[in-house]
Design brief:
Blueprint lengths: L1 H4 L37 E2 L15 H11 L15 E4 L5 E6 L6 E6 L4 E5 L4 E6 L6 E6 L5 E6 L4 E5 L5 E5 L6 E6 L5 E6 L4 E5 L5 E5 L6 E6 L6 E5 L4 E5 L4 E6 L13 E7 L2 E6 L4 E8 L5 E9 L6 E6 L5 E6 L3 E6 L5 E6 L4 E6 L5 E6 L4 E5 L5 E5 L6 E6 L5 E6 L3 E6 L2
Parallel strand pairs: 1-14
Antiparallel strand pairs: 2-33, 3-4, 4-5, 5-6, 7-8, 8-9, 9-10, 11-12, 12-13, 13-14, 15-16, 16-17, 17-18, 19-20, 20-21, 21-22, 23-24, 24-25, 25-26, 27-28, 28-29, 29-30, 31-32, 32-33
């Protein structure tokens, strides 16, 4: 979302052929991080040698030019037909991000260019609360694992935490010196991770607002990041072309992936996106490649990163990547309007799917091998993740579709667009 805004929408269709179900039931293990542990408060990771402190300099105009170059001619397109199950209106600016409550699919959260977040009721299509207090565009929104809290993050460098029932404020998390580029909740506790354009990564106790760690080492904007599935590590990637794996207990950098000598062993340009599942890390870059890395333990007990595949079929920057729930398929999407899906260890794509303009986001359905994509062409594509067949084309938005979210039960979805509307969908 942040990269295209800095771009992120579309219309209703019907679900198609279902893939194998994926059981992602939560572990009963205790949370590995204790947010109240005073030993974690304010700890800063050691800065890695050889890193400079140059600030990131995102060139939004260049990205917009790339998007136009990757777009097919859509000036003479037919009028948009709204095939959605309904729409929600209320924001006065573009909607850049949307999230669904983990257990209540009727509760929707949004972030907008009108500098506010919102809580919405899908059933009544009414606003529950305005999440007010940011001074710039809200580019990220996410519910915690229990759904009791929702976080918003803005280009003002602030992360705010709210009660998801009524939108009342819980905490304001400060520290980053520039825009927030991503947020991610820990899978077993109210610990929140955020990256910033100032090259830093922050971790807070989301209820008390206490800073638990600042991860330093990247030399440019930290464009994307998340906790690992088991919550035992943090993975980040940057405009400096590197990806890193951190230990959140002591803030140490365990793995650093980069290609400073230009040998072709890793990305040669800024990294724009990442996804991680199991032992896999999938990254995408402005250099038009995506790289799959396996994170394995060495004989000495330290983690290492081994490049498994380099995917080179895009002709413009890779804007989004996604690993399927089964870990079988790797999906990449680019400003060139193309989507490629690969078998994990093979560098030749299984299939290619096409939009009419740049793709802003891709995501896998939570319970099926079905891929969803958002595009500048104003649509959401729904694709069979095994064959590439298009199951549905959801239309109804009148501007770029920035984001899409699917309910945890896989039955419904909502899309968000630059047209300031949410559209509602079901997988019939």
């Amino acid at each position: 979302v942040f990269n295209l805004l800095k771009m992120d929408g579309a219309t209703a269709g019907e679900g198609g052929q279902a893939g194998p179900n994926y059981d992602d039931s939560d572990s009963e293990d205790e949370v590995f991080i204790d947010p109240s542990d005073p030993a974690l408060q304010g700890r800063v990771a050691c800065e890695l040698d050889g890193q400079d402190d140059d600030e990131g300099d995102d060139d939004m105009e260049e990205e917009e030019d790339d998007e136009e170059a990757g777009a097919h001619n859509v000036e003479d397109e037919e009028p948009v037909v709204d095939v959605s199950k309904g729409r929600i209106e209320g924001h006065t600016g573009e909607i850049y991000c949307v999230a669904l409550h983990p257990s209540n699919a009727n509760l929707i959260a949004t972030g907008s260019g009108d500098d506010t977040g919102g809580l919405w009721d899908r059933a009544t299509k009414q606003r529950i609360a305005t999440l007010d207090g940011h001074t710039d565009t809200v580019v990220q929104v996410a519910f915690n694992v229990s759904g009791s809290l929702v976080a918003t993050a803005g280009m003002d460098g602030i992360v705010k935490v709210w009660n998801s029932n009524d939108g009342s404020p819980v905490a304001s998390l400060e520290g980053p010196g520039e825009d927030i580029t991503f947020i991610n909740w820990h899978s077993k506790g109210d610990v929140l991770l955020a990256g910033s354009s100032d090259a830093s990564v922050w971790m807070w106790n989301a209820t008390s607002g206490a800073c638990m760690a600042v991860l330093s080492g990247h030399s440019d904007s930290v464009t994307c990041g998340m906790f690992s599935q088991d919550g035992k590590s943090v993975l980040t990637a940057s405009a400096d072309g590197s990806a890193r794996v951190w230990n959140p207990k002591d803030s140490s950098c365990m793995v650093s992936l980069s290609d400073p000598k230009g040998l072709g062993t890793f990305h040669s340009g800024p990294i724009t996106c990442l996804d991680t599942k199991g032992d896999f890390l999938l990254t995408g870059s402005e250099d038009a490649t995506a790289i799959l890395t396996a994170l394995v333990m060495s004989s000495g007990g330290a983690p290492t990163g081994k490049v498994v595949a380099i995917y080179k079929h895009h002709t413009l920057g890779v804007e989004a990547v996604a690993i399927s729930p089964s870990l079988q398929y790797m999906a990449t999407a680019g400003i060139d309007a193309q989507i490629y899906v690969y078998n994990a260890h093979q560098e030749t794509p299984r299939f290619q799917c096409s939009h009419q303009a740049a793709v802003t986001k891709i995501m896998w359905h939570p319970t099926q091998e079905v891929l969803l994509s958002c595009s500048v062409d104003k649509s959401v594509g729904v694709w069979d993740g095994r064959s590439g067949a298009q199951i549905a084309k959801w239309t109804g938005h009148t501007d770029t579709v920035m984001d899409v979210a699917v309910s945890s039960d896989g039955r419904s979805a909502v899309s968000a667009s630059d047209d300031a509307c949410l559209l509602l969908w079901t997988f019939d």
